[in-house]
Structure formats: C-alpha cells, structure tokens
Design goal:
- The chain is about 45% helix and about 15% strand.
- The protein is α+β, with helices and mostly antiparallel strands and about 170 residues long.
- The protein has a 4-stranded antiparallel β-sheet, with helices on one face.
C-alpha cells in the first residue's frame, strides 16, 4: 500500500476538504493521527520468516546468544526457539545474513546446518503423514566419518520403521 498524497499541495487540499478552521482543533488532531498511522503503516518493510536448524541441541545459555544475534540484525525480530528439535523460527523485517549470524553464534558453540524458508514452505520438503516420527537429523560433532555413519544408521532404521512415510517423501511430484 502506498500513499502518494503527502506532497504540500496534497496535504493542503486534504485540509481544505476537512474545512479546518480555528474551532476545529479536535478534528485537526484526529486528522493528523490518521495521517501518521497511514504513513507509518504504508512504510512498513515486508516480513521475512526463517527457519534455522543447528547441529546440536540448544542449551538454555545458548538461547540468549540466538536472540541477541538475530536482534543485532533486526532489533524487532520475533524469535521462537525449540531446543529439543534444535531449531529456531525468526520473523524479521530486514534480511538476515547467514554468515554474520553464524559468526555471532560460533563463540557459544552453535553451528547452523540449515538456514532458509520455514521447512513446511520449502518446495523440496514434503510433510509426513500425521502421527509419524520425523526423520533423523544430521548432527555435526566435528568428526565427519562418525557423523555420516551415525546418520546413515539412524536413517536406515527410520526408513525400515516408516516405509510408507519414506516412500511419500521420495516419490516424484
């Protein structure tokens, strides 16, 4: 939404339409409040939503780092942290720089494994049937051979336990 009548001529014509006179102070105040609201609302930046997945569970002390790192890039960021699932959802009005975010989070030991649109909105991610357990998540401990082996074992066990869900996830659209 854009408001383009804020030129001097536009404002004068608007005031003439309302017939502002010395006895209409209250009307002028209401008009100014309305204009301020419309201008502020029209200039609001678009909202962005990000999902951020981490390689390890999020400790309570690390939650503060996440809030501070995101709010350093957008002071009005809304942040929801799910420590058990190792993820964070952020709604912001300014784009977030992943590299800067990772640099801010590195001192507390958090490593970002996914940064992007919310998973449910991602075109390559399909939802699981209701009631099924989510697929295993790759956990980065710093030893790629061990991490890859652990993930493959967990994935194989999950596929064997949930063949219908795996088929749904891997089926072509």
């Amino acid at each position: 939404m854009s408001i383009n009548f804020m030129s001097t001529n536009g404002l004068l014509s608007l005031m003439k339409m309302v017939h502002l006179s010395p006895g209409t102070g209250r009307s002028a105040l209401v008009l100014c409040a309305l204009l301020a609201f419309l201008i502020g609302h029209a200039q609001r930046a678009p909202e962005h939503a990000y999902t951020i997945l981490f390689s390890t569970p999020i400790a309570l002390a690390q939650e503060k780092f996440i809030h501070e790192a995101l709010r350093s890039q957008d002071p009005d960021a809304q942040v929801w942290i799910n420590a058990a699932e190792q993820n964070t959802l952020a709604r912001v009005h300014a784009p977030i720089d992943r590299d800067l975010l990772q640099a801010d989070l590195a001192p507390c030991g958090l490593v970002i494994t996914y940064f992007g649109r919310p998973i449910s909105d991602h075109p390559h991610m399909k939802s699981l049937p209701a009631g099924d357990v989510a697929m295993p998540v790759f956990k980065d401990s710093g030893d790629p051979a061990v991490d890859n082996a652990r993930y493959e074992v967990e994935k194989k066990a999950w596929v064997e336990a949930h063949p219908a869900a795996y088929q749904q996830l891997t089926a072509p659209e």
